[in-house]
Amino acid sequence: MQFLSRSLLWLVLLFLLGPFVVIVAAGFSAGDTLTFPPQGWSLRWYIKIFTIPEFQHSFVLSVWVGVGATLLALVLGVPVAYAIARYRLPFGETIRTLVSAPLIVPGIIIGLALLRYVVFTLNAPVEITLLLGHTTLLIPYAVRVVSASLDNLRSDIEEAAVLLGRSRLGAFFAVVMPNIRGAILAAFVLSFITSFNQVPVSLFLSGPGVSMLPTQMLWYMEYTYDPSIAALSALLALGAMLMVFLTERLLGLSRYM
Amino acid sequence: MFEKRSTGVLLTLPALVFLLVLFVLPVMVLLTRSLALPEGWGLGNFASFFSSELNRTIFWRTLRLAATVTAACVVLGYITAFGVLSYTKERRGMLTGFVILPLMISPVARTYAWIVVLGRTGFLNAVLTSLGIIDSPLRLLFTETAVFIGLVQLFLPLMVLPLLSALENLPRDVIPAAQLLGASRLMVLFKVILPLTREGLVVGGTLVFTGSVTAYITPAILGGSKVMMLETLLYQRINVANDLTGAAVIAVILVITTLAANKLLRRLATPRQRQEAR
Predict the structure, then answer these.
(1) Would residue A8 count as lying in a domain?
(2) What is the pLDDT of residue B152?
(3) Which residues, other chains included, contact A174 with Cβ-Cβ below 8 Å and sequence gap of 6+?
């Protein structure tokens, strides 16, 4: 029985992870079309993806939007998490629902609504709208991760700091911040990865020369059937694994998921 | 708990204003657009959406795929969770990591991998041909099966994680106790394990079902124009037909379906427990 359940587990893991082995290998192909097993081996596609300007631009934009939206979501979300944990809020339930609502509404609808009523109507630049749209999406993560950490932190040490003469804000930075630093870093990593991989919100928010990396990949693969997307996918997968591995080692990321 | 309410409210204010202006308001305006008719307001746009056979096909296909993907993830989820739990505590962390890992990787990359596996010149066709099972490559891409496989791989981790924590919290001796009292393996599964892990099942099931209903990337890459789902149809309404009202109708259908699934599944989790408590 144990042998059977372990073999089945490894079959499922093969199904979950096997395709990555296949794309990494397919990216090393020497041929012009996507085949597996590849026709000969070369690094040409792994090199080529760095020379395609659309990929360069969208990679840079994706990183900027990811970092910017993550920071903005933390600046907006950490105070909410603190207020939920420490104050008796009027309409507490409504506030909680509102800050988690962006997870429930399909991203494509948020993207389309922003395109129509922020880009078209208010004439906002697409890059700024992408940043704001991604922030909307990341606020729930920031609130949730930091809330979980604050729940485990006793509030009387802050009160002690206040009694000893610190201001409420001073007590927050002196006592609370050092204790939730790990959660904030974990929220940062999770939010950045979420933003970087996000497609539906970004789908409609693009313009001439402006698109996010995953959207750009979707367009590219519609017209070309060469191994460059396989190579790029493999690199992105490796990058994500590296990031998760490092944060797990440094912070124990899985504690916050 | 601090007494000054105004400070608490003040702390939430920036985020609330941000979300109201940039999320609630635009989304509401878009959704109400579905009710706008040339002569006033009404449900006419929904009637005309469902009068098209293609739209009905896509609507039912989306629900059907979401249901079958959820069912497959439940079965595979229990298999995976039991497999992980059959290892010692030290090994479980690493195995859980293997399950979480795909969640961190771009869904575009994850879905694209299936093109390499299922394509005409892909891995599966190469294996089957070389084994002499088939003579000419099978057409696997751009079928509902391909979308199904892609969705199951994409969402399976979201089912495994809640099931794993539910099973880990299961009191250690309930299974031996049931067996001692003469329950067969199947009875243990249906009378003991399923009821006791219902909450994890509902959390995972909601994530997988709503995720599949609102999937864009998988049908876009593996389904193409042949196997459309609601979100790919919505995208096409805007980018090909520039039909904002039609897109708003699909948006309302998506929101209602997700909310209904959330409510329904949550209800499924609670009433039985109340019966048991009596």
Answers:
(1) no
(2) 97
(3) A161, A166
C-beta of residue B163 within 8 angstroms of C-beta of residue B78: yes
Q: Is A164 part of any domain?
A: yes
B221 interfaces chain A, CB cutoff of 8 Å:
yes
Question: Cβ A76–B108 below 8 Å, yes or no?
Answer: no
The SS3 of residue A57 is helix
The ipTM value here is: 0.90
> Does residue A256 have a pLDDT over 80?
no
Task: Identify which of A124, A79, A128 has the alpha carbon closest to the alpha carbon of residue A99.
Answer: A79
Q: Verify whether the Cβ–Cβ distance B255 to A105 is below 8 Å.
A: yes
Tokens of B30: 């878009």
Tell me the shortest Cα–Cα distance from A166 to chain B, in angstroms.
Answer: 15
A19, A88, A236 member nearest B5 (Cβ): A88
Residue A70 has pLDDT above 50, yes or no: yes
Neighboring chain B residues of A23 at a CB cutoff of 8 Å: 109, 112-113, 116
Structural domain includes residue A174: yes
* Cβ count near B57 (within 10 Å): 11
- Please give the class, per CATH, of domain B25-277: mainly alpha
Q: Which of B27, B84, B122 sits opposite A9 (nearest CB)?
A: B84
Is some CB atom of chain B closer than 8 A to the CB atom of A242?
no
Domain, as residue range, for A181: 53-223+238-256
Long-range contacts of B40-47 (CB under 8 A, 24+ apart): B45/B245, B45/B246, B45/B248, B45/B249, B46/B249, B46/B252, B46/B253
Q: Indicate the pLDDT class of residue B1, thresholds 50, 70 and 90.
A: very low
**Range among A184-188, B6-10, B211-215 rated most confident:** B211-215
- Between positions 63 and 82 of B, the ones with CB within 8 A of A are 76, 79-80, 82
Is the pLDDT score of B2 beyond 60?
no
Give the gap in angstroms from C-alpha B58 to the nearest C-alpha of chain A.
17
The CATH number that applies at residue A78 is 1.10.3720.10
- Report long-range pairs for A167-175 (Cβ below 8 Å, ≥24 apart): A168/B7, A172/A82
Q: Pick the more confident residue, B268 or B166.
A: B166
Residues 9-38 of B with CB under 8 A from A: 9, 11-12, 14-16, 18-20, 22-27, 29-31
pLDDT band for A127, please (50, 70, 90 cuts): very high
Quick: pLDDT tens for B94-142.
898 889 888 888 899 889 889 888 988 888 888 888 888 888 888 888 9
* Residue A21 forms part of a structural domain: no
Which tokens hold the place of A149?
A: 């950490």
A241 touches chain B (CB under 8 A): yes
pLDDT band at B252 (very low <50, low <70, confident <90, very high): very high
Which residue is closest to A221 within chain B, CA to CA? B221
